[in-house]
Specification:
single chain; alpha/beta; TIM Barrel; Elongation Factor Tu (Ef-tu), domain 3; 8-stranded parallel barrel; 7-stranded antiparallel sheet; 26% helix; globular
Length: 403
C-alpha cells in the first residue's frame, strides 16, 4: 500500500483552505442540507465551487456528506442537490441511507460513493454488499478493533477502500445513531442537529422528594456519565496502516481552523514518516505533543484495541493548554506581519506552527502597530502587528502561547 490518505474536516471555505495548506490529501464537507453537522456554516453552491477549485488546484479531493436520514419532504429535494453538487466536480458522496445511496447512483453514477460510518458496518459481508451496490469505500463503524478491520480487509474485494476515524470527539451511541438529543431538546441528531446532551451533567431525583437532587457518581470522579473521551491514534500509525486501512479520518467539521491545522499537520507528518521508512519509524515527540496543544477532552484509543474508550467523569469541558494569539500574514526583509487573535505581550515566548514543518519557538523582542509605533501588548482582535525577526515564517502559520 503506497499511499494512505489523511482526510480532514472542513466546516467552511476558510477551514478547507487550512486543511489543504497543512497537508490534507482529501477533505470532507457538507452543503446547506443533508449533512450530519448543522453547527458549522457549511457550503452553499458558490462556496462549494470555490472549495472544489482550490482543493483540486492543490491535488486534494473533496467528499460531500449526504449522511443524514432524510424525511419524505427532504428526500424530494435530494435529486436536485445531487445533480448540482455533481456538476461542481466533487470526488465522492458520503451516504448512509439506502434510499439516498440509490438516488446518488441514479443521478451521479460517475461519482464515487462512500458509505458513511452511520451505516454501522462491522463485518465483511455487509462491507462487500455495499461494494456490490456500487460503493468504492466504506467508512467502518467506530466500534471495531484493528483485528476485526484486518479480517474485513482480507475478506472483501481489494478494490473496496476502508476508512476509519482516528482522531476527535467520540459519540456515546453506536455509530453516531442517537435519540437523546431528540428526546431532551427536540433537535434530531440523525439530521445533523445534535445538542450533545451526552456532555451534560446529570443528577437523580427521587419521585417523592421533589427538589432533592442526588449525584450520580462513577468511581467518585463526577457525574458526566455519558461524556466520552476523545479519540487519538497518533501513536499507532503503524498498526492502522498495517491493518489495511486506506484513509485516516479526522473528526471536527464544527471545530476551528487551528484545530484543523494542528491535527492535519500531525497526522500527515506521522504517516509520511512511517511510509518513508517503516523499519526505522519512531513517532517524533513533537508530533505527539502537538495534539496536546489543541482544545480536547482526555484522549483514548477508542475501540481499536478491544477496550471501550470510557468516559471523562470530572467535567464536560475541554483541556486547553494553548491559545492562538496571531496568524502570520507574511514575512519580508526581517519583519513578520501578523493578525491578532488573542492578547499577547512584548517578551512573550511564542510557539509557531507552519504547514508541513516542525514547530519552533520565538520570543517577541519587538512589537509594532501598523503605524510603526512600538507597543507593549496586542489587545485588539484582528489588529495588524509587526515583529522584527530573522526567522522566516510561512504565510498562514499559527502563533501560539502556552497558558
Amino acid at each position: 500500500m503506497n499511499k494512505i490518505e489523511v482526510l480532514s474536516p472542513a466546516g467552511d471555505v476558510e477551514r478547507l483552505k487550512v486543511a489543504v495548506n497543512f497537508g490534507a490529501d482529501a477533505v470532507y464537507l457538507a452543503g446547506k442540507e443533508f449533512g450530519m453537522r448543522t453547527a458549522p456554516s457549511n457550503f452553499d453552491e458558490q462556496d462549494l465551487s470555490e472549495a472544489v477549485k482550490y482543493a483540486h488546484a492543490n491535488g486534494v479531493k473533496v467528499y460531500v456528506t449526504c449522511n443524514t436520514l432524510p424525511r419524505n419532504d427532504e428526500i424530494e429535494r435530494l435529486p436536485n442537490f445531487i445533480k448540482v453538487v455533481k456538476d461542481l466536480g466533487v470526488d465522492a458522496f458520503i451516504a448512509a441511507d439506502i434510499g439516498v445511496i440509490s438516488l446518488i447512483k441514479k443521478y451521479a453514477p460517475e461519482i464515487d460513493l462512500h458509505v458513511s460510518t452511520q451505516a454501522g458496518v462491522v463485518n465483511y459481508v455487509t462491507a462487500q454488499e455495499f461494494y456490490n451496490m456500487g460503493a468504492s469505500r466504506v467508512v467502518l463503524a467506530r466500534e471495531l478493533t484493528l483485528e476485526e478491520i484486518s479480517t474485513i480487509r482480507a475478506k472483501v474485494n481489494k478494490k473496496l477502500e476502508l476508512e476509519v476515524f482516528v482522531h476527535g470527539s467520540m459519540c456515546v451511541s453506536f455509530s453516531g445513531r442517537c435519540l437523546l438529543s431528540s428526546y431532551l431538546t427536540g433537535r434530531d441528531s440523525n439530521r445533523g442537529d445534535c445538542a450533545q446532551p451526552c456532555r451534560w451533567k446529570y443528577n437523580l431525583v427521587e419521585e417523592n422528594r421533589n427538589g432533592q437532587f442526588f449525584p450520580v457518581i462513577e468511581e467518585n470522579e463526577g457525574t458526566y456519565i455519558l461524556n466520552s473521551k476523545d479519540l487519538c491514534m497518533i501513536e499507532h500509525i503503524p498498526e492502522l496502516v498495517d491493518s489495511g486501512i486506506n484513509s485516516l479520518k479526522i473528526e471536527g467539521r464544527a471545530k476551528s481552523e487551528y484545530y484543523v491545522a494542528v491535527t492535519t499537520n500531525a497526522y500527515k507528518l506521522a504517516v509520511s514518516q512511517y511510509l518513508k521508512d517503516k523499519s526505522e519509524y519512531v513517532l517524533p515527540d513533537f508530533i505527539k505533543a502537538e495534539l496536546d496543544k489543541i482544545s480536547h477532552r482526555e484522549y483514548s484509543t477508542g475501540f481499536f484495541f478491544g477496550d471501550e474508550p470510557g468516559q471523562t467523569y470530572s467535567n464536560g469541558g475541554y483541556i486547553r493548554n494553548y491559545d492562538v494569539v496571531a496568524i502570520c500574514n507574511g514575512w519580508k526583509d526581517g519583519v513578520l506581519e501578523v493578525s491578532q487573535r488573542n492578547k499577547f505581550y512584548l517578551g512573550d515566548v511564542i510557539d509557531i506552527l507552519e504547514p508541513g514543518e516542525k514547530p519552533f519557538i520565538m520570543t517577541v523582542d519587538s512589537l509594532f502597530d501598523e503605524w510603526g509605533n512600538s507597543v507593549e501588548s496586542a489587545p485588539h482582535p484582528m489588529q495588524r502587528l509587526f515583529i522584527k525577526t530573522d526567522q522566516k515564517v510561512k504565510k498562514g502559520a499559527f502563533l501560539r502561547k502556552k497558558r
